[in-house]
Structure formats: C-alpha cells, structure tokens
Amino acid sequence: MNTKEFLVPYLTKTDFILYLQCPKSLWLKKHKPKEYQHYKKPSDSFLLDDYEVKKYAQRLFQNERSQLFLFPPNHPTNVLFNKRLRTGEGISTYIDILEQNADGTYNLYEVKPSTTINADYIKEACFQMITLEKCELQVRDVFIIQVNPDYVRRAKFERHRLLKKVPITQAVRDCEQKTRMEIHNALALLRQNAIYETGCGCYWKTRTNQCDTFEYFNNTPKQKSVWELPRVKEEKLWTLLDRSIERLEDVPDDIALTAKQFFQVRSAVERKPIVKSEYIAEMLNTLTFPLYFLDYETISTAVPKVIGAKPWQKIPFQFSLHILHEGGKLDHKEYLSDTMHGVEGVLHALYNSIDCVGSIISWNAPFEKLCNRTMGQLYPEYRFFLADINDRMFDLEIIFKKAYIDAEFGGSTSLKTCCRLCVHVSHTKL
Ligand code: SF4
User: Fold this and answer.
1) DSSP string of 25-62, one letter each residue
2) Which CATH class is domain 47-185?
3) Distance, CA 18 to ligand 1 centroid (Å)?
4) For the segment 92-118, what is each residue's pLDDT rounded down to a tens digit?
5) What is the predicted pLDDT for the residue at 430?
6) What stretches in the chain show pLDDT beneath 70?
7) What is the dihedral of CA 182, 186, 192, 193, to 10 degrees?
C-alpha cells in the first residue's frame, strides 16, 4: 500500500448512510472536517440509550441465554460483541453482535434503541453483511434487535420483554446488489481529492430537503431568503430563482403568494414586524386571571425509568410556573425532581400550585397537553385535575403564528427564536 492510499479516509456505516443522503456532505465531512463541523448543527444524541440497550441485548446472549424465549438454545455458539472489521479497500465498521452457527456461518445482529425499523436500518445491516462477506465470513441470517414498542415498565424490571428480535435477512438480501454498487461508489468518492464545491442540487429545493452544509456549498443570503417563505412549493422557488431573486425583499408583486408568505415579504420590505393588534386583543380577551405560565421539562429514554411508562414516552421531571395576578403581582413556583422517576413529585407540587380558576398559558400547547395526558395515565388519581388544566390551556405560540409576523424569525415561531428577537433574551437564560 503506498502512502497516498493510506491517507484515504475509511468508510464507516454512519458515513455510508450520510453518503446515501448526500455524497457531497460525506466528502466535506471526510476531506474538510473543520468546515463540516462549523456548519453542522448539533443533533439529538442517543448515545446513552444506545449503550444501555446494547448492554441488555448482550446479556441476552450471555448467562441468561438458555432461559429465554427470545433466543432459544439450539446449539453451542460462539458470540462476539462489538467486533471490529476493516477491509483492504477502506471499509471500517463495528458489528454489534456476531453469532457463529454450528455450520461455520454467522448470524448478524444490529441493535437499535428505536421502537421501529426504518429503511436506513436495513441499509446499515446490509452494509455490515457485505463487510463481513468481504472479510470472507459467510452470513446466514440478519436480525435487528429493537426496543419492543408495547413494553411497559413494571416494578420488577423484565429486560427480556424490553427487546424484540426481528428477522430482516430477506430485506437485506433484496437490496444487496444495489448496496454493493453504492459502497463501491462511496469509496471512489472518498478517493477524490476535489469535488465541485460552488453550488449543489438543493439550491432548487425547499428548506426541508437541505442539509446543514447548504450554506457552505451555496453563497446565498444567510437570512430573509426566499427559502424561508412559509410552505413554499418548489415550482414557486424555481420561478423566483430563475429570475435570480434570492432575498425576500426582492420578491416582486407579480408573484402569487399565500397570506402568510405575503406578510413575511412585507415584513422584510418594511424591515419591521407585521402586527395584527385587533386579532391579538381578541385572543387575549379570552383569558382569565390569574394567568399561569406553565412549562415542563421532560425526559424520554429507550429503557423507561418510571413504572407504567413505555419506551421513549416523554415524562416530566420539572416544571416552571409564573403566576400573574390581575393587579400585576407576579409569583413564581417551580419543581425539580432529583430522580428520573419523580413524576409524582411534579404532580403533587403542581396540584398545590394551580387553583381551579385562571387560564393556563404555554408555548406549543400540544406538547404540554400530551405531558398532562401521559401523567394522567401514570397517576389516574390526578387525571381530572390534569384534564381540567388541558381544558383551560391557551397556546401563546398561535399569536406568533397568526398575528405577529417578523421576517427576522426566518419562518420559525419557536420560543427560542421569538424570545431572542422580541425581548432580546436568550432562551437558556429564562
Ligand atoms: S444541501 Fe447540498 S450538500 Fe446538503 S444535502 Fe442538499 S445537495 Fe447535499
């Protein structure tokens, strides 16, 4: 192997999925990692859940194996965990669980903390199978071990009920040929020292199609661009971009816009928010004092920590409650559980903080309402109290969706954006 070949980056399973989403993104990640990290936004990390579920999956193959319905003993096996594989052509991967059969073939297990199986998981398993076969290990069966969506946490933790083994051999074999070609092409891309970096195909697509590195590849306006138009369709984007119109304030009158798009353009042109005061007054007049401003923080884990909870159910462990009285007096109450299963403490404190009169105000009310329904299922003695809170709930975000349109928001009405731009307070300081 010469020095140049040695410097070609390895292709991992995660890289391969990124390649399928966008070859350019993968190239940037591997050849210009600093630039890639600069543009890449932090995403939710499920490392702890991944670790915990893998740990339980491994135990099913160890001392408990013979007692389990899930993995009945049929013959002596040799099981390897986190088996690292590298091929001469540049693939590097870890196999979660590799089980050797009596005939010398192998069963491959991919472990996922998820309750569903998506197309990426099949491609990942196929990537693993092909890598094993490139290393001359013959694969017989392929499985995904996933979290059982119907699992309910009991007082005694039954980990064999937590996981589910799903055979996917046929699905993986069905996409094998195509995947081999894609791996070949991904490796060829990684060997390229340069690609076309001034532009990419998503220039003509809506924002939902664009990845974090869109701005790296496209020299477009950072804010108030036509891609921020609410629910803009591709045909409308093409019409604008064909005429080299990239900024909201340059959208001409002859372009047909929806009402929301029209107000956003007007806000950009006038450089100020468009405020529908009458509508806001009408909405606020429906409120009753005292006003309770309620916000939950939740935890959601693959392995539920609360008795009665299901995998990934969002469980409140903290609330913040500002209470505004009619005369203007402001109180603040809060509760923070010191364990991950402190829902009862949350409920007890909430029950003692909210009276039977007054509007409950939240931001993105469907989320708070869902939390209340979940807590009502876990603790039925509180369900009428929680149902009453839901009946009295008012969603403040609706005002920003319908009656306060600011092009500065970039089409977002999240609390983070609106707080930062309206009252110049960072969400993290609230
Ligand atoms: S924005 Fe560009 S780099 Fe990102 S997915 Fe689209 S084509 Fe690829």
Assistant:
1) HHHHHHH-HHHHHHHPPP----HHHHHHHHHHHHHHHT
2) alpha beta
3) 11
4) 999 999 999 989 999 999 999 999 999
5) 53
6) 1-7, 63-77, 340, 420-421, 423-430
7) 160
The atom of ligand 1 lying closest to the CA of 212 is 4
The DSSP letter of residue 308 is T
pLDDT at 113: 96
Please report, for the chain, how many H helices and E strands are present, in that order: 18, 12
Which pLDDT score, from 0 to 100, does residue 421 have?
Answer: 66
What are the structural domain ranges in the chain?
47-185, 201-274, 282-398
Residue 27 to residues 8, 23, 208, Cα–Cα distance (Å): 11, 6, 21
Query: Cα dihedral angle (229, 230, 232, 236), rounded to 10 degrees?
Result: -40
208-214-219-223 Cα dihedral, nearest 10 degrees: 50
Cβ of 337 below 6 Å from ligand 1: no
- Is the beta carbon of 29 within 6 A of some atom in ligand 1? no
Segment 297-331, tens digit of pLDDT: 999 999 999 999 999 999 999 999 999 999 999 99
pLDDT given at position 66: 41
Query: What backbone phi and psi angles, to 5 degrees, belong to 273?
Result: -70, 150
Give the Å distance between the CA of 201 and the centre of ligand 1. 7
Looking at domain 282-398, its CATH architecture is 2-Layer Sandwich (3.30)
* Mutation probe of ligand 1 site: the residue of 24, 40, 203, 209 with most atoms within 8 A of C-beta: 24
Rounded to whole angstroms, the Cα distance separating 359 from 381 reads: 22
CA distance 185 to 168: 25
